[in-house]
């Protein structure tokens, strides 16, 4: 983040009778109150802060936020040992706000160190590893084998359809929305995303569309309803398949749409005129990425188009998945790839990449919208899942919004074509023509 930020003090709260008090200014309890924290650009050239230095040190050491490691924060947040009240974004941004140049001297005297150790012991940051919370994934089998992939998807997507509707909105779309108008609603932005993808794929009546990782059927419903397309959606989530089929029947589109409980690697009824892959490639894994690209190529007819809509990471080393909050609690076995890796792999499979568009800022806004819906319906969300699951989701979505805003992750739509026998793409001469 840029230097020059004002940060009002987070207030540490707790019951002294429970030992949840500040001793020598060191964090002693698990609840952090960020109500009233204001993070905004300042006019001066330094960081103004009233945060107790020892609190910052403890947060950084225990949560490992400085290194992007959340081995302590994740189980503590899932179990409720750490509870952040107020502005979650400000709390998650705190270590980043204190750059190496501006970070205060965090040297602790021996009284403060002793107090920090007591807090660390209470949070189980040191000592024997605590039992894993039930929200942590426990997968077995070979990485990205069909059975293990199905279990990984079930861990994340079979939380409950009602829970997802509560968080995602009526479209039940779990991917980046497209805010074509600044004041449109979340549901309108999700429909705008589907319309954008349909234009890029050139959908029209009579075409065959395959949507891999179809979720609750949003893309296939849009394609059939708006363009008369014959659409097949595949998912390996049983809960998604059940609800998607219900939605198709309720929309009166069963004659145009088929929902299958099927892995993309098992689809064999090509060729298709177009393929959409929306938020699915993140689950493929580096070891299977070439298999994925080859399968997309094989399932497309010559001249057919693929729209790969996926989150990307910045180039560089990959965090150890054992220390990744997202892998352990949210997306087990999920892997993000740099944009260049995706483009290179698609072209190695024989596809020609014709267009790349970044929607990074759109995903930040989408995640913030989901957090808002979760906060507004908190009691119902807890009742539909578990307190731990709801806490994990709130932390994960808020952290994801910041990751997109801070350019630590991106969201890209990559349009690729399988060249025809004369190596033509079939695309109009200009981008404006095929986007309409």
What characteristics describe this protein?
436 residues; alpha/beta; Rossmann fold; 16% strand
In short:
The protein is α/β, with parallel strands linked by helices.
How are the SSEs placed, and which strands pair?
Elements (H helix, E strand, L loop, with lengths): L4 E3 L3 E2 L18 E4 L4 E3 L6 E2 L3 H11 L9 H7 L3 E4 L1 H10 L12 H13 L23 H12 L3 H8 L17 H16 L6 E5 L5 H10 L2 E6 L2 H13 L6 E5 L10 E7 L10 H11 E14 L11 H6 L8 H10 L3 E7 L1 H17 L1 H7 L2 H19 L3 E9 L13 H5 L1
Parallel strand pairs: 1-5, 3-6, 7-8, 7-10, 8-9, 10-11
Antiparallel strand pairs: 1-4, 2-3, 11-13, 12-13
Helix pairs in contact: 2-15, 3-15, 7-8, 10-12, 13-15, 14-15
How is this structure best described in words?
- The protein is built from 16 helices and 13 strands.
- It is 40% helix and 16% strand.
- It starts with a strand and ends with a helix.
- The protein folds into 2 domains: 5-122, no CATH class; 146-435, Rossmann fold (3-Layer(aba) Sandwich).
- The protein has helices at 53-63, 73-79, 88-97, 110-122, 146-157, 161-168, 186-201, 218-227, 238-250, 289-299, 325-330, 339-348, 360-376, 378-384, 387-405, 431-435, and strands spanning 5-7, 11-12, 31-34, 39-41, 48-49, 83-86, 208-212, 230-235, 257-261, 272-278, 300-313, 352-358, 409-417.
- The chain is globular and about 75 Å long.
